[in-house]
Amino acid sequence: MALFAAGPLGAQTVHGVLVDEDARPVPGALVVLIYPGGAADRGAMTDARGSFTLVAALPGRYTVRAERTGYQTAEVVIDLAAGETEEVRLATALQVFVLPTVDVVGESPCTVRPGRGMAAYALWDEARKALRSAAFLQDAERVQYTVRTYRSHIVMATGRMRRQSDDPRRVTGRPFQTLAPAELASRGYVRPDGDSVGFYGPDAQALLSDEFLDTHCLYVDPDAADRHTVGLAFEPVRRRGVVDIRGVLRFSRRTGELRAVEYEYTEPGGSARPMPAGGSVEFLRLAGGGWVITRWHIRATNIARRTDWAQRGQQVQTVTDVHESGGEVTEVALVPEPGAP
Hints:
- The two termini are 29 Å apart.
- The protein folds into two domains: 96 residues, Immunoglobulin-like (Sandwich), CATH 2.60.40; 197 residues, no CATH class.
- It has four helices and 19 strands.
- It is elongated.
- The N terminus is likely disordered.
- The longest helix has 21 residues.
- With 341 residues, the protein is mostly beta strands.
- The strands form four sheets. Strands 8, 9, 10, 13, 14, 15, 16, 17, 18 and 19 form a ten-stranded antiparallel β-sheet that branches. Strands 3-2-5-6 form a four-stranded antiparallel β-sheet, with helices on one face. The chain has a three-stranded mixed β-sheet with strand order 4-1-7, with no helix packed on it.
């Protein structure tokens, strides 16, 4: 989703500031220009003074929307004439997180694209704030990471494990690579890759995408909760001809902040693959308010099929090898926006 490309010089400009109920600046909020109909045009993060600058590609009527985890969403509608510079002031307030109750209606609580009034909406709304911030910082290449990655291989029959760690390296943008959301949705998360099989996981862009929301349903899952977190579960909405994922987004019970996404791969028929095939992505809110990915891993399995004559010739699947790859961010630095002092 290339929502935040830079605009041309001399175009319509919006200068603004985001403040709280005590008129104090709110840094680290994501501010976007939105066309009528809901399409995002440009984005920026507020600085330590709560200030931001947006450049619109075309004149017209826009909604300026600011959001940060833990704060209410603030927005204002403006009309931008050709070549005009508009000054705006947005006001927000701290938002107390209230754990939603679980109301199961009918036989399934699973809902595609949760709307207001549903138990899943409060959690998904907080997730979107974190995911949009992480996606924006990555797309705009505003984050530079120091990353340490590893790979391991376990032979199940012997229990032997071989692990290889790479030297730390600097990465700008995404700490790990995956496929585009449309490709994940249409071709699946597991696919042949030459002589091997590629296993892919979702990043912030994939979880935010229309393709993910159209092919997965969301519900508050009490079984996915623990003492510190509450879970927003997701699963494929229908049986599809590709390997998909199901899992849970974990939120802090105290603050409502997104902590991690855990998932497992599902077979085309909807059942889970033999464990432990899956992965996780962990998130962290920076001191300035932005969100980044801090740790991730993917476990992939090799499966052998054999005929079990003791079970009347049934086909039995067993895991022969487990491959794991992942990484950890050891240092994060924000890259100043072009033209910033």
